[in-house]
Write a structure and sequence with these properties.
The protein folds into 3 domains: 8-41; 83-124, no CATH class; 126-190. It has 7 helices and no strands. It has helices at residues 2-56, 60-71, 81-97, 101-110, 113-124, 129-153, 161-188.
Length: 190
């Protein structure tokens, strides 16, 4: 029986394997068909997704502007009065270290808040360069003229001529500056 069963087994294996091969082949075909359908569905889904992405996508300039808007930090606020005062005192301390003793003392006097404020006000109003130049010119020309006339006519000057000429010269210098700036601003705006 051993001999007889051996030749029968290969035939059975062949018949089983051919039936099995047919089933396997059918399963493969089914898988291929399913994969082909899936692939077609996948390709159309991919096309739809790409189309949707292109429709909803933002341009680079839009992305850059929104990103910069999100990351903008608020503008830094100016220094407080305390910070400014401390910074000024620190600077003055370092500068005064380099000065001689008399210079340090003068610096301490000059940089007192009351003196600084009054100096700034005077510098912005009365002690304008145009006023000083006007006063200098008026005193120089006016006194030469008055001394010449007084010597020629033979009378004496009272001594109030110089302060009066200083005041008149300063006023005239400031007026000339004001007129000049007014005319310049009128023509500059056109």
């Amino acid at each position: 029986m051993n001999h007889e069963s051996t030749p029968n087994q290969p035939e059975q294996k062949n018949s089983l394997s051919s039936a099995e091969a047919k089933r396997h082949h059918e399963r493969l075909n089914e898988n291929l068909e399913r994969n082909a359908e899936y692939s077609r569905d996948e390709k159309s889904a991919e096309r739809e997704a790409r189309h949707e992405v292109h429709e909803k996508a933002l341009s680079a300039s839009e992305v850059a502007s929104t990103a910069s808007e999100k990351h903008q930090q608020p503008a830094p606020q100016g220094k407080t009065k305390q910070e400014k005062k401390r910074s000024f005192e620190t600077t003055m301390h370092h500068v005064r270290k380099e000065m001689s003793l008399p210079e340090r003392q003068l610096s301490k006097i000059i940089h007192q808040p009351i003196i600084e404020k009054s100096s700034e006000v005077i510098g912005a109003t009365v002690a304008r360069p145009s006023g000083i130049i006007g006063a200098t010119i008026a005193v120089s020309i006016g006194l030469l003229f008055l001394f010449g006339v007084a010597k020629y006519a033979g009378f004496e000057l009272s001594g109030s001529e110089m302060p009066l000429l200083l005041v008149l010269g300063m006023i005239s210098g400031l007026l000339i500056e004001w007129v000049y700036k007014s005319i310049r601003s009128i023509f500059a705006s056109k």
